[in-house]
Amino acid sequence: MRWCILNRMVQYSSSLLDASFAALSDPTRRGVLEQLGRADASITDLAQTFHMTLTGMRKHVGVLEQAELVKTEKVGRVRTCRLGPRRLEQERAWIEWYRRLWDARFDELDNVVDELKRKETLDGRNEIG
Amino acid sequence: MDATRSGEPTSMGSNAAAERTSERELVVTRTVNGPARLVFEAWTRAELFERWWAPKSFPISLLSCEMDVRAGGGYRLVFGYEGATMEFFGRYLEVTPHSRLAWTNDEGDGETITTVTFEETGGRTHVVVHDLYPSKEALDDAVASGSTSGMPESLAQLDELLVTLGTSGGS
Lengths: 129, 171
Description:
The structure holds two protein chains of two kinds. Chain A contains six helices and three strands, in the order αααβααββα. Chain A has helices at 3-9, 20-24, 27-38, 43-49, 54-66, 86-128; strands at residues 41-42, 70-75, 78-83. The radius of gyration of chain A is 24 Å and the shape is rod-shaped. Chain B is α+β, with helices and mostly antiparallel strands. Helices cover 25% and strands 39% of the residues of chain B. Chain B is built from four helices and eight strands, in the order ββααββββββαα. An eight-stranded antiparallel sheet of chain B has the order 1-2-8-7-6-5-4-3. In chain B, a hairpin with a 2-residue loop joins strand 7 and strand 8. Classes of the chains: A mainly alpha, B alpha+beta. Chains A and B meet through helix 1, helix 2, helix 3 and helix 6 of A and strand 1, strand 2, helix 1, strand 4 and strand 5 of B.
């Protein structure tokens, strides 16, 4: 009855069908986002986690950075990665999707409740009559 | 609140509102034009519940719905989407007729608790659906799952497109 799982099966808001999908089309990059959702990490950490070379991971992070899904900052010799501003947009888009789902549900709930009300009125009349 | 209070008795002038109210909470509210007793009935009788829980405008269908609506009783919903099925299940924690329902969502990791309250004013019922996730991370993951793991087919199509673009690419 929760939607985080079901919404994986349901077509997602078309507003996300934009450039960021390019970044999200790769399973490693999706993994990196999930990882960064838990904690910030350096490129070295990420390369180790995903069993990749530093160069390979730098490329992936570069794609995510271009899509504004990840922000990086170099302090000394270490480049730290964290989730970027697009994450907030995604959250807003997801909540809007969730709201629309509930809107549609409540519209149909209205019909069910209307029907119950009509039925009750009829039953009431029958009892009196 | 911009819910329309006037108008036709069957007017659907009000929209549902949804908000992440804290790191672990999501809240949906909507006013339904009917007494709490009937709204509660539509939430707790399986044959009524299954008529609205999977809206027709969404590409999902409710294949089966079992609900033992009492504290400690279980529920199990089976959804279908493009040939695949998905089960949602848990147990009711609280069932207070016409005013309050709470249940667990046991299909995922950790325990998310949904609480629904029904408050009647002048023949209309204000419904509040409150989801409490086990942690900030759990709700973040739920939000992210919609965008990062979403639409496998669309992503597959996009992969194909990228391959095409890649061959003409070079930066």
